[in-house]
Amino acid sequence: MIKFASKLHRIAASEKILIAPLDWGLGHATRLVPIVLRSLQAGHEVHLGLSGDAGQWLSRRFPALPAHSLPSYAITYLPSKSFVANMRRQAREIHAVQHREHRALQVLQKEIKFDQIISDNRYGLFHRDAQNTIITHQIFPRASFLTEPLLRAYIHHRLRRFDQCWVPDFESIDASLSGELSHGRKPPMALTFIGPQSRFGALHKSPSVYQKAILLSCPEPLRSAWEKHLVKALQQSPEKIALITNGAHIGGEDQKTIGALDVYYGLSDERIGEVLSASEEVICNAGYSTLMDMHAMGIRPYVFATPGQTEQEYLLKYLLSKKMVMQAPPHYILS
Q: In CATH, what number does 210-332 get?
């Protein structure tokens, strides 16, 4: 499924590993599935550090693994504001959560004594008595002209607290999915490219049920607003459309039919694959975890950028230039 096993050679067998995703959307949790699986296959004792909906999702995916509560970032994304404005509004609280999660780790480490800590974009999870790994593709994040240098300096300062940085992308810029977000000049530390990470494998097409399938994944309250927009815009469509989202039904699967739309909530990986394999076209946002899933499944999707998210705007433009994706029609975008 992935080319990752060789990246665990630095970790001795039967060591204790804490794996923890950022809880902003589900993508940081879903892309850790192959890393958890490879760690278990290598004989390690895996613990999960969890918070928010992403934590609930990963805990349900691996119910037998010990789970430890971490402070929640509780990041929200307002449709009326840009990504930079949203982050600026919540910067103080984000910084405070990083301090709280760092203190929480000190308590956990006294009790459990982890050998390895693998953090997906949680910059407070490092300990002097463990091997500290950060997973991120945002080495050179995009922002406004004035904000970008400050944001990059902040990220680079935080990255240097870790022993190693794993980038979920190809090392070759020619094959890269993240482009200059991870392949910029003068990285703050040595980078280990572990390849795109996805819980999915290649799809086998089945007879068409839907003309289009839409994957909607983004933080609240934007997700709910976007779902309402899509239902209103597409329920009278002459085509049969599947809308796959998580929403309030993260704890279990649910479905409702609204006109031409079949709206799916909380689907398992298997069911998502079934719906996508029975769809002629797939439409999704340019979230990096979603793009890695599309690559793993062999889908060339129609893509839109979440409004105001400079990273997604860059990824969309970059992947369009490489003809790896197509531009989604404007009526799918929440303005």
A: 3.40.50.2000
Q: How far is CA 204 from CA 108, 118, 254, 273, 297, in A?
A: 43, 33, 24, 9, 9
Buried-exposed string 241-263: b where 16+ CB fall within 10 A, e elsewhere: bbbbbbbebeeeeeeeeeebbbb
Closest CA to 19 of 117, 99, 93, 89: 117
Q: Is the CATH number of domain 5-193 3.40.50? A: yes
- The residues pairing with 282 across neighbouring beta strands, listed in sequence order, are 213
Domain locations along the chain: 5-193, 210-332
pLDDT in tens, 224-233: 888 999 999 9
Q: Closest Cα to residue 288, out of 125, 94, 137, 134?
A: 137
Output the CA–CA distances (angstroms, integers) from residue 174 to 178, 312, 318, in the order listed. Answer: 11, 19, 12
Q: Do domains 5-193 and 210-332 have the same CATH topology?
A: yes
Q: What is the pTM of this model?
A: 0.90
- Please write the tens of the pLDDT for every residue from 36-48: 999 999 999 999 9
